[in-house]
Structures are given as C-alpha cells and as structure tokens.
Amino acid sequence: MSALLTVTCAVPAAGAVLTAALPAGSTEARRSTTKAVALGVSAVTLVLAAVVATRFDPHGARYQLTESYSWIRSFGITFSLGVDGIGAVLALLTAVLVPVVMLASWHDADPAPVAPDGTFENRRRTQGFFALILAVEAMVIVSFYATDVFLFYVFFEAMLIPMYFLIGGFGDRAGGPEAARQRSYAAVKFLLYNLLGGLVMLAAVIGLYVIAQDQGLGTFDLQTLTSAIADGKLQLTGTAEKALFLGFFFAFAVKAPLWPLHTWLPNAMGEATAGTAVLITAVVDKVGTFAMLRFCLGLFPDASKTFAPAILVLSVIGIIYGALLAVGQKDIKRLVAYASISHFGFIIMGIFALTSQGQSGATLYMVNHGISTAAWMLVAGFLISRRGSRLIADYGGVQKVAPVLAGTFLVGGLATLSLPGLAPFVSEFLVLVGTFTRYPAIGIVATFGIVLAALYALLLYQRTMTGPVKAEVSTMPDLKVRELAVVAPLVALTILLGVYPKPLTDLVNPSVNATLSQVHETDPAPAHPVAATSGGEQK
Amino acid sequence: MSTTGMLAAAGGSTPSIPAPHIEYGQLSPMLVVFGAAVAGILVEAFVPRRYRHWTQVSLALAGLIGSFVAVVVLAAQGYGSTKVDLLAMESVALDGPALFLQGVILLAAVVAVLTYAERKLEPKAGGLPADAFAAQAAATPGGEQERAALRAGFATSEVFPLTMFAVGGMLLFPAANDLLTMFVALEVFSLPLYLLCALARRRRLLSQEAAVKYFLLGAFASAFFLFGTALLYGYAGSVKLGDISDVISGKAMTTPALLSTTQNDALLLIGLAMLAVGLLFKVGAVPFHSWIPDVYQGAPTPVTGFMAAATKVAAFGAFLRLFYVAFPGLRLDWRPVLWGVAILTMVVGAVLAVTQQDVKRLLAYSSIAHAGFILTGVIATNKQGLSSVLFYLLSYSFVTLGAFAVVTLVRDSKGEATHLSSWAGLGRRSPLVAAVFALFLLAFAGIPLTSGFTGKFAVFQAAAAGGATPLVVVGVLSSAVAAFFYIRVIVLMFFSDPKPGGPTVAIPSAFTATAIGAGVLVTLGLGLLPQYFLDLASKAALFVR
Fold it and tell me: pTM of this prediction?
C-alpha cells in the first residue's frame, strides 16, 4: 500500500497551513516569499498528480493505488483513497489549474496602501488568499480520490468554507462599499445554496448508511457498497433508492450547477476575482459532475436510469438558457458564467445519456471546459484589471492596442464555441453523438447551444476587441510576461488536446465503461454511421 | 432530604431504624465538589480580602480537578463499562451515562472557572483588578453604595463557591436514581445559578431582570417537576425510577393498593407530562424556551457560558435517565409528543435566531435549536441514540464555552460590545479572534471537520436508525436555516468594513486564553479524530436499572 495519494492530498494541505503561518505581508519581499512558497507547493502537487496519472494503468483494476486507514470505526468510516481514470484526470486538471490561477492572481491579494485613518487593512491578506487556494486544492483532490462515501461528503462540504472566504474576502477594491456588499451577497448565496444541497445529501448519506447497516453492511466504502448493490447483497427498495438518488443528485446539481439551481454561479463568478472564478467553475464545480458519475450512477443504477430522461431535459434547458442569457449579458464575467452554465448542461447531458461516447465525452468536457474557460476568464480578468470595469460597453478596439491580449482572448472564445481543432470540439462532439444515439430529439435541441455559443463568444470579441479604439482603452498595455506565462500553457493545452486527445481518452475510457456497466447499460446498436466514425476518435 | 423523610416514616412503624449505608468512595466525585464549595464559604469568612480571589480560584480548580480524577478512577475501576452500582440506598446511580456526563460537566466547569478568574478585561476598580462580577451584589445599581464598593475595590468572590454548589447539583442530577433525589439535585444546581445570573458588573439592571425571570420561571418548572413526582408516587407507590418502570410494565408485585392506583392512567400520564415540562424547561426546548434569550443575555457572560454548557449536559442527562429507565414502557405515548417538541424546537430556534441583533441572544437561540437536535437523538430510543447524545453534549459544551469566552473579549467603553453591528469588520482588526469565533460558529452550523458535524451526524444517524426519518429531514432543513445566521455573523466579521470607534478586542490573561484554546482543541479534535470519544460514549451508553 503506497501512500502516494495521501501525499498528493497532504502536500497542498500542509502548504496551506505553512502559507497561512508565514509572517505578515507588510513588505513586498515578504509577500513575494509567501507567493513563491504557495506556487512551489502547487508545483510539487502538480508533479505528484502527474505521477498518479502516469502510474494509473487503464487496463488494470477499477481503482488503483488504493489506500485505506481506519478513521471513525463507529460509523464504518475509513480514510480510503483510490483513483480511476476519471479521478486521475480531474485531479491532474486541478493541479494544472491551481498554479496557473495563482500566477494570474499574483497581485490580487496585495494589501492596499494603509488608509489615512488607520490600520484597517488586513496585513495577512496575501497569506490568507494563497493559503485558501491551497486548501481548496487539497480538498478538491481528496474528493476526486476518495473511495469512501462519507470521506467524499466531508470534503465536498468542507471545501465550501475556503471557497466562501475566497469569494467574499477578495475582489477588486476599486468598487467601494457597493461592490463589497455585492461580493458578500454573492459569497453568502454561494454558501447557502451549496450548504442546503450538502445537507440534503447528508440526509441521504445517513439514509444509505442506516439501510446498509440494517442489512449487515455498516460501511461507507464505495467499492463494497457498489458491489453489494450490483450482486443484490444490498437491496434498496424502489422508493428508497429514488429518494437517496435525489438526495445525492440535488447536492451535485447545485454544485455543478444544473438549471434551475444555477443562480448562485453568475453572482459568485461575477463578484469574485478572475482567479477565484476559475477555481469555482473549472475546479470546484467539476466535483459535482464527477460525483454524478461516480456516486449517483455507481450507487443507484436503477434510479439513475429512471430519472435520466428528466435530467436530460433539465440539462438541455440549461444549455439553451445559459447560452441565451450569455448573449444578453452586459458584464464580461457574468457572460462567462452563463456560458459555463450552458457547458455544464452539456456535461450533465453526456453523463445521463448513459452511452459510452456520452460519458467519455462528458469527462473530456470537464477537462476541456476547465482549460478553455480558465484561459478565457483569466484573459478577461487581465482585461478588466487594466480598465477597471466589467462592462462590455466600456471596451472597444482593444486588438489594436493590445494585440496579444486580444489574440489569446479570441483563442479562449473560439475554444468556448468548440471550434474544430481546439480541445472542446472533441468532447462536445462526443457528447452530442452519445446523446443522439439514444435520445435524438434532445441531441438536436442541444445542438442549437453550439450556434448560440458562436453568437455570444464572437459578439463579445467583436464588441470589446474590434472597432474604433475607445479613449480609455488607448493606453492599455499588452500582456506582461507573468500574464503570458499564465495564458501560454492553457492555449497550448487547448490546441494539443484538440489535435491529439488520445492520452486522455485512453485514461478515461475503461473507467467510463466500468461506470456504464454498473448501470447495466450498453450502447444502443449504431443506427447511424456517425457512431462508427467517432469510435476512431475514442481509441 | 429524601433519606431523612424515609427514616422518619420508617421510625413511625417499626422500632429499628436502619442506618443508611453510604458508599463514600463511589460518591467521591460529588463529595469532593460539595466539600470544596463548603470550604469556599469558609474562605469567604476567614481569608483576608486581597487573598480571596486567588484562594477561591485555586480551591475551585483543585476541587473540580480532584473530582474529575475521582471520576476517571471510578471509570478505570470498570464502573460504567463492566460494572454498575446503585449508591446511597439506591438513590444514586453509578453507571456509564452518569460517569460520562459527570466528566463532561467537570471539564466544562474547569473551563468556565477559568473564564470567571479573568481579571485583565475590566478596567481596575479602586486600584484593584476587577472581574466580570458585581462589586457588591446587594448595592443598588447606580447608587452611592455601589460607587463606594467600586472605590473600595470589592469583589464578589462568592461566585466560586456558588458555582461549585451548582456543579455539585449538576453532578447529582444525571445520576439521580429516584425522583426525589432528582428534584433535590435540580434545586441544588438551580438556586446558585439564579443568583449567579444577577451578578454582572456591567448592565446590572439587565442582569437582575434576567435573574428574576429565570428564578420565577425556574421555580414554576421545579413546581411542575415536584407535582409530577407526587402524581407518579401516587400511581406507582415509589419514587425509584426502576420501580416505576416495573409497575408500568406490570412486572412489579401487585398489592391491593397498587392495583387500585395503577388502574388510573391519568395519574401516570399527567405525572409524566409534568416531569417532562420541568425537564424540557431546563434543556430549553420549545415551548418552554422563552427564558433562555433573556437570561443568556443578562447574565455575566462567563456564567452564561457555564449555564449554556453544563446545565444542558446535566438536564439532558436526567432527561435521558428518566425516559430510558423509568418510562421505556410508555415509549408509544411520549415519543409522538417529543417528536412535536423536537420539531418545534429546531424550527423555532433556527428561525427566530435569524432576526437577532445581539450576539448573546443569537447564541441563546442557537442553543435552543441545538436542544432540538439533541432531542432527535433522545427520540431514537436505542443505544446509538444514547451514545450519540452523550457525544453531542461533550462536543456542544466546549464549542459553547469557547464561543462565550470569545464574546467576553470584544469590548468597548461600556463593557462587552454584544450588539452585532459592532462586530463588523472584526476579522480585519483581529483576524485571530475572528477566525476562532468563526470556527465555533462553523461548528455550531455543523460544517464537516468540526466537532459539531460529528455530533450532528451521530444523532441524526441514530434517529434515522430509530425510525425517525422525518425528524432527520426537519433537522437537516433547520440546519440550513441555522447555517444562515451563523454565516451572517461571519460575513459581518470578515466582509464588512469596521466602524470607526467600534469595539476593540481586549488581550486576555492566560485564563481566558486557555479556556478558548481548550474550546478550539476539542472542536477540531472531535471533528478530525472522534473515534476515541465515540467509543467512550458508546461504552458508557448503558443505564443501570
């Protein structure tokens, strides 16, 4: 039993404690030390997560590198970790994005120059911000690796707290008291929505445990539970299974977020810093969709099949609704948020289409959406920090003064609208094909989401970057070296995974097939040649 | 009192008077505390004023720790896990729940006494350090006498013996094996608390008002309890919990007298209901909760912390013993009523807390909501229910003590600044204190990795296993409501701008710092590694009959 997974989770956790304990950032040098330490820790985590992903053998056992330690014996709770392909890839995504986000947020948490009336500014701001990011990273990675339902739940809930402080405590200071009020409203809304979801899930977790305990299985171990459900050792009555499924799904659907539980996302992403917004949409929200795959389908296969059509309808509504609202947004960050809601619709649709293409598409989608949205949002953040406004109308002609910024912003936008050749195209295509083979009508409606995506992404580019140069924009500097270092790996990954997604699909596909077999579902017989051609892409 | 009464009765009918057999060794936890309390009174009489404070603090701490050692020794001898006993003519039980809860009460009292001993927060009065208690309790607030007392640097060091008497009563309450002993214990711990509530140094009128309210309502509740005892004696012919249970289940020997009274279920049900009223008042369950906000707000904050933690532990201990030992046979009758009470308590506590503007009142309503959560564990009526309630009480009492200890630190010129608006921006000025308070609030809200979550999970799990799934759902939803107001305070502390001229955070002495540190340690410890204490609670979860 190697401790690789525990170490991968423990490094950012220890880093968070260390960063928080560093001396207060009253001088530039001390702040730089803090940031360097945090960045270093996240780099070590990246290496570890990469090692985990490479040590994972796609053709081996379902869960690998497993570890299990006794934790709370009274309730059959263990500290059990293990990876499947999906968890390995998503943890790697997290580990890639966190250093990028840190680099992008380098100066977001510097304390303001002390106000004339005293010492109100918190000198530990910088330490706090970077420690919170590392804490989120640690908790997200534990969630991706956890193979104990209770362990997962604990970290699924606990990550809300650092996230809440990141949203509420840090943002652009220029906005004054009104912006601060908006920000704390957004943070509270985020927390309450997710906490309610989590508490409903808690009831379901307890229910599952009590039922399992009655049948002699007093455990939270995922593998024990899923195999007991599969071979009938653990019998859930129809009503109980449906109720438990809904309890779990509600929490994940709030987190993901699925229409109509999405309303916290635009507030949170709009008011938070660009870096935090990326953490929300590209990292934390992925735990929700990931958990649908791992827990909803694994534990409640029959209920998943029962509710799949209803969930598909909601996800399609989310695709169209998110895209339509994105078209109408005046605020750049909220536009990205609504675009994300549309994308989450695609991911959830791919999961509950219950086809192998749909699900591996959904998993790839989680990765690709994470990377492309991070690029789009972070460049938008750079843009906003230069002008001090989030309103689209305040920009125009930026591409003439800051061509590199405009160019990377375009790449992010094109990735979002799934331009062929860029990574999101592969996954969106797989999701649509996977859905179409089982539910043609839903697949067709969802396709309109792509058209709308082209509309909102290109309109945003056109309104901000092209046209006559606005006066306030005319002196805008182009991307700095640090900012280039943020964008370059994201753009490179977008292109690389668009052209050559095979390493990812190889990792993911066996796990997807294992998940599908838990639901006793096989792909429908190919009625269209489309399914056959996409098979080549999967291999 | 009960012993004397029985002796007198026995003396009337037979010539031989049996001398009561008292097991001093097994009763030592209570005897040590009562002894320290009596010694404390003597200290008041004989020790010069300037040495009194330290003598009292050392005496109280020594008594509490000595008593705790006695509890540990008894547990190490196997009491509570492998053997149980009935002491003092079967009026006191020595079993797992009694020992566990006595341990919790003693630890909570140690922490509370540490906050009592704090003398760095108040400005000096008469050139001497001042604590949180009135200089001279009998002086009229604002009067000449009070000013004279302040000038002379008087201090009410009687709070220590009073607290020790209260602790002694609390130790007896969950261990009492008959209704009369239980009543005596109830009075022994309530009367000193009524007094302690009236002793605040600042805002004395509010404090005295709180004490009067608490006394009047508490006296009513005690009367209910006593009347219920009388009715049950009329029904079962005994005040012993085991005997009552036997009569109810029909296992007792039937005598002609019993036959005539046991026909009358009204005696039984009304008696039970009145006992329940008395106990529900003490735990602060809706609809008997109305005293809690006023009393918690008015009492000196260290006393509030002590009351909120230790009274709840003792009262729930007695509650469990009464319902699990004397009335398991009536489960079908009392469970639906307690269902209603628990639901009301959770919902009312959580919803009313949302509108509060004062930190102490907010914590008071939160304590009402928590009483509801604990009741869900009581209703489970299984072994898990018992052990989960024991665990919950342990975790809750330390969070509460810690939270009230933090409240004593946030001060302005008028003393503690308890209005919520003055807590705005605390996180920017004193990040550490705000972070600690946020931790306690998150534990109250039941966020994972804190003791509050483990406790909540344990009681909800027990309730679900005991067939009370709807209660769990209500509990989960009111947790969400409750989370809202805890979060509101966190928002205020961290995301609002501090007001100019707002309160400052006083630097406490090692006493309060230790108390808060203990709260943090237990909160995180029981959240991260609760197994040992869950085992302990589970081992202790068996009542002697």
Answer: 0.89
